Structures are given as structure tokens and as C-alpha cells.
Amino acid sequence: MVETADLKVTTPSEREVELTRIFTAPRNLVFDALTKPELLRKWYGPAGWTLDVCDIDLKVGGGWRFVVRRPDGKAIGQKGLYREIVPGERIVNTESWEDWDAGECLVTTVLNEENGKTTFRSTILFPSQEVRDTVVKAGLEHSAASSYIKLDQLLVSVVLEQD
């Protein structure tokens, strides 16, 4: 579908989007950056956006809630529940929007490490093709690419601090 910077975005089925990117960091560190509020606040959201609310109850059945704020001041809330957690390897969670009743997505994120690099693969199963297409047309690939550039910069800085 689209490749933006180092992010590959594909649509493996009519209801899915798959985001794939390689980070030069161990997978445990990438996992932490995906699940620890103090790290998420440093990278989550496209350039110019802030993560105002980052609540995480990291356990199966636990919930999460994020509120991002765009540069124009608009707040966007997302929430979900964790269905599966394998520390350092895999997270499966639901996701829905607070201001858009589009239904619930299922997000499966898998981390594979090889030679000090982690392949991040996140597959989003949308409730319908229409919802998937709406999210894609709204700029999913560019927003994700911008966020993952910030994540990469954070990971590099943490890795350098550890050396």
C-alpha cells in the first residue's frame, strides 16, 4: 500500500491494516516504550501532538485510555482492553474511539528481535472495510510514520544511555 520513511503499511485483507517497522533496539525496550506511560508520553502521536492522558492497566482484562491533543487543540480519546500480553513479545488489545462510534478494532502487535534489531508488526482488524478505509484516508500511514520516527529517536537515546 504505502511506505513512509521506514514504515511499511499494507492491507492484507479487506478489514485489516498491517504496520511494520524495524527499530534498532532490543524488543524488551520496544515493549516498554509501547506499555509504560512515562515512555509513551515522549513519542505517541504525530509531530506536534501531545499525549495528555495515558492510563494503562497492563494485564489481561485491564484497560487502557489515551487522549491525544492535536496542534489545533482538538482532543481525541481512544480506549480498549488487553486480551493477551506476552512481555517483550506480543500484545493483543481492543481499541475504540471516544468521539466516533465506529465499532471496536482488534490490534495484534508482535515484536521479533534479531541481531539487536526489533521488527514491530501491528495488525489492526477493523469492524468493517468502511471503517478501515475511513481511517486510512484520514492519514493513518503518515500519522503512524511520524509517531514511529519519534519512537525511534527515543529508543536510540535510551540505547545510547545504556551503553
Q: In the residues, how many domains can be counted? A: 1
Give the CATH topology.
Alpha-D-Glucose-1,6-Bisphosphate, Chain A, domain 4
Shape from CA axes? globular
**Ends distance:** 37 Å
Q: Main beta sheet, described?
A: 9 strands, antiparallel
> Over all CA atoms, what is the radius of gyration?
15 Å
CATH architectural arrangement: 2-Layer Sandwich
Supply the CATH superfamily name. START domain
CATH class category: Alpha Beta
Tally of separate helices: 4
What does this structure look like?
It is built from four helices and nine strands; from the N terminus they run E-E-E-H-H-E-E-E-E-E-E-H-H. The protein is α+β, with helices and mostly antiparallel strands. It has one domain: 2-Layer Sandwich (Alpha-D-Glucose-1,6-Bisphosphate, Chain A, domain 4). It has a nine-stranded antiparallel sheet, covered by helices on one side. Helix 2 (37-43) crosses helix 4 (140-162). The radius of gyration is 15 Å and the shape is globular. The mean pLDDT is 94.
Topology:
Elements: E1 2-4, E2 7-10, E3 16-23, H1 27-35, H2 37-43, E4 50-56, E5 63-69, E6 75-86, E7 90-97, E8 105-114, E9 117-125, H3 129-137, H4 140-162
Antiparallel strand pairs: 1-2, 2-3, 3-9, 4-5, 5-6, 6-7, 7-8, 8-9
Helix pairs in contact: 1-2, 2-4
In short:
The chain has 163 residues and is α+β, with helices and mostly antiparallel strands.
